[in-house]
Amino acid sequence: MALADILMLGRMLPVVEETLASRFTVHKVGRDEVASLDPGLAARIAGVACGAHVPVDAPLIDRLPKLEIVANFGVGYDSVDAAHCASKGICVTNTPDVLSEEVADTALGLLLMTARELSAAERYLRAGNWVGKGPYPLTAGTLRGRKLGILGLGRIGKAIARRAEAFGMEIHYHGRSRQADVAYPYHPTLAGMAEACDTLMVVAPGGASTRGIVDAGVLKALGPQGIVINVGRGTVIDEPALVAALADGTILSAGLDVFAEEPKVPQALIDMERVVLLPHVGSASRHTRDAMGRLCAENLISWFETGQPVTPVAETPFERKV
């Protein structure tokens, strides 16, 4: 029996490459090679394995007439045109759950670093200033008495909420609709939640519907003690508005693990001492990334062996037609 042809877009973890190579005929293609993909090969591709670095857009999808499934490495899949896949009966999968706890840990660590200026305090010590200038100045921020508004109370958002409760924070949330099994106060509008809170935790996915929704008005509503943390997608925040709000004191500070045009980070943010910036490391432990890789591969294996994906996204709840 011929092995299914799988297109692997970009470099992936060894656990993904090795597992797929043992079950399929794998064709590795880099970002710069997608446009020149051989038509003969394109005609044979039945599955795609991809991360967020090479988009699976409509033009690429349309060049793969036998494509059945796109297995995305990561919980966010805004780099895959899932709506176009759905219109063509192509299943899209992602890797939820296995990274929720790791990202939640990062989110709380980032919040602590931002509120208490921990990375700036470390730089102060390393520069010899503790000896030369005395103790680090008292921080303007604290977690004491803060109200945390979570934008996107999904799996990761709930894991963050559990941790924040342990720190004594009051939890609020905003999303597309109220969740019946959640006791936290729900706000039907993002601006309304920002007015009720002084800390905004962004866990929302990217895409057209969320682009720039954390805008100047939302930031102003948080107030001068406001802190913004983003572990969702960089595009959710209007970056120029965020820079302006930080520069003029509209909000106190921000902690960002994601950016609109990664790996490019606005120089204005880099130059701000009280802003904490991380290079998209939310789930970046070997333990968690390997678990994500195994799930990515399992989706492809299960699809071709049983006709059932393990973790299909909401837009494509399909089974394989044999």
Chain oligomer state: single chain
Rg measurement, Å: 22 Å
**Could you name the ranges where pLDDT drops below 50 across 5 or more consecutive residues?**
none
Q: What percentage of amino acids are in beta strands?
A: 5-15%
CATH homologous superfamily grouping of the largest domain: NAD(P)-binding Rossmann-like Domain
**What is the averaged pLDDT score?**
96
Q: What is the fold named in CATH at topology level of the largest domain?
A: Rossmann fold
Order of helices and strands: EHEHEHEHEHHHEHEHEHEHEHEH
Q: In total, how many domains does the architecture comprise?
A: 2
For the largest beta-sheet, the strand count, sense and barrel status come to:
6 strands, parallel
Query: Regarding CATH, which class of the largest domain?
Result: Alpha Beta
Give the strand order, joined by hyphens, for the main sheet. Answer: 7-6-8-9-10-11
Shape: elongated
The proportion of residues forming helix, as a percent range, comes to 25-40%
